[in-house]
Design brief:
By secondary structure, the chain is α+β, with helices and mostly antiparallel strands. The protein folds into two domains: 165 residues, Penicillin-binding protein 2a (Domain 2); 370 residues, DD-peptidase/beta-lactamase superfamily (Beta-lactamase, 3-Layer(aba) Sandwich), CATH 3.40.710. It contains 23 helices and 20 strands. The strands form six sheets. Strands 2, 3, 4, 5, 10 and 16 form a six-stranded mixed β-sheet that branches. The chain has a five-stranded antiparallel β-sheet with strand order 12-11-20-19-18, sandwiched between helices. It starts with a helix and ends with a helix.
Length: 610
């Protein structure tokens, strides 16, 4: 009897506790937690999204590269739509009535899934269309206009590096559930890299519906409305006037032009040509098919994505490695009789012979660097070719080659750099030697570098042995930027050896006429430009024109790489283009009017298109 009484009491107490828990939860949900009620009762409330303005993108001097201007999207809530004059609505927005009717059939098929959601009907309408719609909106129940902003471009430059925004699609939303239908996201360039800070945060207004689902009033006088938070502004390292000038220099040329500030790694100019017209960015959907089908690939950013052979500018790296390894002496001269005549041989142009290290840079001698490269590979300090090659590769990667540099550009590629195992597969283990890979001596063969890599090489030499990761960001509103960008990356070569190389680069540009120097067209009085020409072999057509440089020689302010496809010798196009950019940056104007006119009116595209 006592046991039965005790068990009944326990049961009663349990029922009381459970009931009290349920009552408290119901009280919390229905009385206390209004926010839950608001979210759960979508049939009683209507949400109107408030879209934030994206953050501005400013250049290093405060010029607005990317701004915002007012726009409107027409939204439709299918559940609220009553019978309307389809033709009248289509006339306002120049729509196809058949497409609109099909759209509503699709809404009907998915009415359960859509529920009370508002969906985009027409995006980015003009001010004239908006005014017409407002005037006639009483005829179109269930349709409303939402204020948006679209990107504007006050400065006509930099489309490929700025990137574009686009509406999210189903696959993107699946991977990024914080985005909803109708949201926009940065797809390329800086818009993609800094999407998290540029996008801002959406807000909304909550309205009450009556029993007929008509919107009657603001819920709780807006107490639970959330303000949209604008995106943060970012300041980038690009010099807008210099960027625009660089794009003018590259007009009717295919290739890239990249400039870096050596003391910081900040990218001053990043040109990919041919590129996207800035005026097409805001309406990228309209032009996307045209741009993506263009055989010249304007959407492809050659500056960070093309793994070109570096050509003769890579001789500087091999010379530095040979000096560091102690297998090259600045005094020793090597012969050149129109090329290196061992094995398959490597051809060269006519110039005085034999040459010292300084002269080899000044005249860009192929034969000299075949000797230097073989000295590295056949160094008796290493037991076999694979070991010496691996050491050489370690040196090369310390300059940033063969891998992504880690910039804040989303589509940056790492280029290519062969391994000893690669040559084992081709030739067989221990069956290859320094002559098998002699093309690497002059920057040909299996090595591929982006123009960003080459500009970084120029900056590394300017700094006498170290570089900062090239980057586009300078500051973010109320945010600390990535500390890695202020970290020095040292090569494996001593500073003293860079000084030996730099003298040759200085003479390549500034030696007197008749000296055999290859880059005298790049000379600007008073700027002490140091440079190296390159002519990269191209199996698909005319050779590529390459030039890297920095200036001034002491306390450098700018390092540049110019890579012009199918343009021939480095001295012909790349050197003058790079030097004009340097002159404009350091002097604020160009005094060499004849050279500037020649470049601005020149067209190397005929070598690509024919």
């Amino acid at each position: 009897m006592g046991f039965e009484f005790k068990r009944n009491n326990i049961l009663i107490i349990g029922i009381i506790v459970a009931s009290a828990t349920v009552m408290l939860r119901l009280f919390s949900l229905q009385i206390v937690d209004k926010e839950y009620k608001i979210t759960a009762s979508n049939n009683a409330y209507r949400y109107k999204v408030r879209y934030p303005a994206r953050g501005l993108i400013l250049d290093r001097k405060g010029n607005i590269l990317v701004g915002n201007e007012a726009s409107y999207d027409i939204m439709v809530t299918p559940y609220e739509v009553k019978e309307f004059d389809t033709l009248s609505l289509c006339r306002i927005f120049s729509l196809d009535p058949i497409s609109v009717r099909e759209m509503f059939r699709e809404f009907k098929r998915n009415r359960k899934r859509i529920g009370y959601q508002s969906l985009p009907f027409v995006k980015q309408i003009s001010g004239k269309e908006y005014a017409l719609f407002v005037e006639m909106s009483y005829k179109f129940e269930g349709f409303n206009a939402v204020s948006r902003t679209i990107r504007s471009y006050p400065f006509n430059a930099g489309a490929n590096l700025l990137g574009y925004i686009n509406e999210v699609d189903t696959s993107f939303m699946r991977k990024n559930p914080e985005y909803k239908r109708g949201d926009y996201v940065g797809r390329t360039g800086l818009e993609e890299s800094y999407e998290a800070v540029l996008r801002g945060r959406k807000g909304y207004n909550i309205y009450l519906r009556d029993v007929h689902n008509r919107v009657k009033s603001s819920f709780e006088d807006g107490k639970y409305d959330i303000e949209a938070v604008p995106g943060k502004n970012i300041t980038v390292s690009i010099d807008a006037p210099l960027q625009r000038y660089g794009e003018l220099l590259m007009k009717n040329k295919m290739g890239s032009l990249v400039a870096i500030e050596p003391s910081s790694g900040e990218i001053l100019t990043l040109v990919s040509s041919p590129g996207i017209d800035v005026n097409k960015l805001a309406y990228i959907n309209k032009y996307f098919s045209e741009l993506s089908k263009d055989p010249l690939k304007p959407m492809f950013n050659r500056a960070v994505m093309s793994p070109y052979p570096p050509g003769s500018v890579f001789k500087l790296v091999n010379g530095l490695i040979a000096l560091q390894e102690g297998v090259l002496d600045t005094i020793v001269r090597y012969p050149c009789n129109m090329g290196y005549r061992v094995g398959r041989g490597v051809g060269c142009h006519s110039h005085p012979s034999p040459l010292s290290l300084t002269q080899s840079i000044m005249m860009s001698c192929n034969s000299y660097y075949c000797y230097a490269f073989r000295n590295i590979m056949d160094n008796r300090a290493y037991p076999n070719i694979a070991t010496s090659f691996n050491k050489w590769r370690e040196y090369v990667t310390s300059f940033g080659f063969g891998e992504k540099l880690g910039s804040d550009f989303p589509s940056e590629q790492g280029g290519t750099l062969p391994t000893s195992s690669h040559y084992d597969r081709i030739h067989g283990k221990n069956r290859w030697n320094s002559l098998s890979i002699i093309s690497l001596a002059i920057g040909q063969g299996e090595i591929g570098t982006t123009p960003l890599h080459l500009a970084n090489l120029a900056a590394t030499i300017a700094n006498r042995g170290y570089y900062y990761t090239p980057h586009l960001i300078k500051s973010v509103q109320d945010t600390t930027i990535k500390a890695d960008f202020s970290k020095r990356h040292y090569t494996m070569v001593d500073t003293l050896n860079f000084k030996k190389i730099i003298q040759g680069m200085y003479l390549a540009v500034n030696a007197p006429p008749g000296s055999g120097a290859t880059a005298t067209r790049a000379a600007v009085p008073g700027l002490d430009i140091c440079g190296k020409t390159g002519t990269a072999q191209n199996p698909h057509g005319k050779d590529h024109s390459v030039f890297i440089c920095f200036a001034p020689k002491d306390n450098p302010k700018i390092a540049v790489a110019a890579y012009i496809e199918n343009a021939g010798f480095g001295a012909t196009w790349a050197a003058p283009i790079a030097s004009l950019l340097v002159e404009m940056y350091l002097n604020g104007k160009v005094a060499r009017g004849d050279l500037e006119a020649y470049i601005l009116t020149g067209n190397t595209m005929i070598n690509v298109i024919k």
